Amino acid sequence: MPSRNTAGTDGSPNDASAERSGPSPLEVALIDAAPRYLVPFHPKQLPHFFTDVLIIGGGLAGLRAANAIDPFLQVLVLTKEALEQSNSNYAQGGIAGVVAPEDRFEDHVADTLTAGGSLCDRAVVELVVREAPQRIAELIQWGTHFDEQAGTLALGREGGHSHHRIVHALGDATGREVMRAVIEWTRRLRNVHIWENTFTLDLLTHEGACRGALAVDQHGRMTMVWAKQTILCTGGLGQLYRESTNPPVATGDGYAMALRAGAQMRDMEFVQFHPTVLYIAGSSRMLISEAVRGEGAYLVDRNGYRFMHDYDSRGELAPRDVVSQAIVSQMDKTRHPCVYLDLSHVDAQFTRQRFPGIAEACGKFGIDIAVDRIPVRPGAHYMIGGVTVDIEGRTSLPGLWAAGEVTSSGLHGANRLASNSLLEGLVYGAHAGAGASREALAISDTFRAPPLENTHQPQPTEPLDVSDICNSLKSLMWRAAGVRRNRDALSDAQDSIENWRRYVLARQFDEPQGWELQNMLMLATIVIRAALARTESRGVHLRTDFPDKDDANWSRHLSFRRREPDVPAIPGE
Ligand SMILES: Cc1cc2nc3c(=O)[nH]c(=O)nc-3n(C[C@H](O)[C@H](O)[C@H](O)COP(=O)(O)OP(=O)(O)OC[C@H]3O[C@@H](n4cnc5c(N)ncnc54)[C@H](O)[C@@H]3O)c2cc1C
Predict the structure, then answer these.
(1) CB under 6 Å to ligand 1: residues?
(2) How does pLDDT run across 80-115, given as a tens digit for each residue?
(3) Which entry of 135, 320, 377, 534 is annotated as an active-site residue?
(4) In CA terms, which of 176, 294, 507, 530 is 20 to 30 Å from 560?
(5) For 323-353, how does the pLDDT look when each residue is reduced to its tens digit (9 = 90+)?
């Protein structure tokens, strides 16, 4: 179990002495996560549904968990939109694993630890790396067609990996093929039921344990879902930022509902940005894969100047965080909203054949990638922090397990190694599923709902322009808690968000856009507090006012937990 330290501290970003003297010695910062539930409900007015295991989220982690549940048990999977809408489905590069005979587990472990900036948990890294070949073999058995070369798996290599060890599919559409196979495989399981287009609002807790969730379907019908065990697999929060590679479902609902329910979270300052995301007004923010730079593309500024060697001797192939930071600096220097990828010196026919998807997407906007420069800038890509889980996928809240991007397992430390996240979802999905299954089997059926209700009815108020606040929040997060951070910008952002929270969280909404905004405001508060508190630069967290790594004070995690109503606020919080 993760530590259930109840000591309160704020590691307070508002407390100047914290910056002078390093972090507070206490472990868990308490955060105001009121209200406990987003909507009022009463058990006598709602339908009830009983299952053995509830899985919230149907991406790779959620479906892998579903496959680990004993067939004797009933399983319900909830997804916010269609099953195909998940970060997993959009994954491009592939899944890392030691499958080549000349590769070694020790090297994959070492590469992961090096990327992680001294914050990885070695036992977790060992576990995940050593399980990778088995999990990849399982995907093949379930019908995934990975790309092959001369009859064996074709292995790619990405930044930070010392060997070719990335299995991929459909060239650069690995997620689409893996999810096609896993969805088909899971739909055949007779004990697994999937409710698509069903928004989970909150986890239901009673007597200190998670007992299921409150869900609402696309017609606005609410159901109290009771489960012996619940597994949270709701993915990331890229939509918190104006620029992001994540699909619209990634609004971070799972983090917010876990926090409201009392689960511990950590490492929320570590948001990974992808350096090259297509930047064309009106286009989707498509990720332009590292492979484009791998094939020789230059990064140039608005004046055509190739700038990467001014920042790092590895040039365009420096690690993601270094390239992202260099791009933002060059955008500032040239006062221009983007930089450009230039492939005009590479053979045109090769370029169009090697990157057909990117060529097609850019072509729609009149850009020929073999000739014209491709406008790009960094975008939020992957959330490293999340709900703290132990090696089995158990959270600090009894009855609640978690797997995938929504978690902080200790695998990634302060920076995720490319293609380790689908792998993490597979490994932790399998473990959390097995653990939840084991515990659910030991609990007998009662079909009785606990006496749980939320009678709080907010006062009716003027309607709000939810989209307007949402856009303002995303822009603010991009400016203040993006690739480069500093105390002044973070503190100003904290004030604005606190102001919005005051009137947005006090409201009651009846559709997903409002609930998502409430969740995003909660998360923005934590990301900013964590980013303010960590007065150093490490991994993906760059503080321009504290540019160095500070091992003496900061070789540790920052954790957060909901402040219970009877615990007084800490001055400065
Ligand atoms: C463009 C892109 C490329 C990537 N490429 C790679 C790669 O090559 N290799 C790699 O390892 N990683 C890659 N990643 C990261 C990786 O895809 C994700 O980290 C991983 O897929 C997360 O899986 P998950 O199952 O945890 O979450 P997801 O796949 O995001 O699934 C989340 C699920 O939760 C559901 N959900 C969310 N909120 C609610 C709610 N309120 N109610 C009900 N359901 C909800 C969603 O509907 C969805 O079913 C990439 C990510 C992106 C965006």
Answers:
(1) 56-62, 78-81, 85-88, 90-95, 174-175, 199-200, 233-236, 245-246, 249-250, 253-254, 287, 382, 404-406, 419-422, 425
(2) 999 999 999 999 889 999 999 999 999 999 999 999
(3) 320
(4) 507
(5) 999 999 999 999 999 999 999 999 999 898 8
